[in-house]
Predict the 3D structure of the following.
Amino acid sequence: MQILNGKEAAQAIKDSLKIKVAQLASQGKEVPHLAAILVGNNGASETYVAAKVKACEEVGFKSTLIRAEENITAQKLLETIRELNSDPDVDGILVQLPLPKHISEDEVINAIDPGKDVDGFHPSNVGRMVLGQSTFVPATPYGIMLLLEHYKVETKGKHAVVIGRSNIVGRPMSILLSGNSNPGNCTVTLCHSHTPNLKELCLEADIIVAALGRAEFVTAHMVKDGAVVIDVGITRVEDATKKSGFKLKGDVAYDEVAPKCSFITPVPGGVGPMTIAALMKNTFKSCAQKHYEEAEGE
Ligand code: NAP
């Protein structure tokens, strides 16, 4: 069993970006600039945005964090997005999800300039991804693809079972794994809460991507020997022994599943850091597309 160490792979990506950004800066060129909007003060969202801002600092990007009150109107939020869209200094815009109930996430995502949509959620970027065209691929599935690539995990001809069909993880993951690419070329089964025979499907899987948000849902009796298991889930579980009062659990019962696997991601330290590294790559790509020739293939 080999651990797919997302921390290590993400560091390699960030180190390589750091060198490129330093080169741009030394030539007096624009460096990438990510603008993040955080609405309200959801604890998990605060943590994710802070990690993204920190990663920007680490690689030498500019970053701007725009905080909005929980009760901000949709109109005001859309106005902020339009300002960022037209600011030539901003390369990437992300709105941390989830948003308060009174704001339509679709409306907000649709308002972001697709050329600055580094989260890859805008319909035109999703369409490009489905068609296999160059685009901003949503950061979590993109990060998983980069992790598989980093560890040279063979995916061609494999049966992948993706659990969860959200627009930000499961569905794009299923599209990427089924693409004519490397990693890719899998036969994919996409499962959700109405899938009746999940255990049987998982037992047939060479690759399982668990993205349902239920702590330790995937147990050893659902995994065949030698499978590759990618755990996307992050659930806060109460733990009085921790200063924060909680610990993070993945969607996979790691201790019992890991011995059966050829490769497995830990939580934390697996998919999470890769998501941030992928976002950094998308932001660099946006800047490069705008200012420089070498954008393609980033
Ligand atoms: P989501 O929008 O809540 O989607 C969950 C999906 O799982 C839905 O499609 C749902 O099916 C399916 N599902 C729920 N219970 C199920 C069950 N018992 N059997 C089969 N399918 C089931 O969640 P998400 O945003 O995709 O996130 C999933 C998890 O990944 C969460 O824990 C989240 O915190 C984590 N996450 C981690 C990262 C990272 O960087 N590591 C990034 C994003 C998300 P229906 O569609 O039928 O409801």
The longest helix spans residues 6-26.
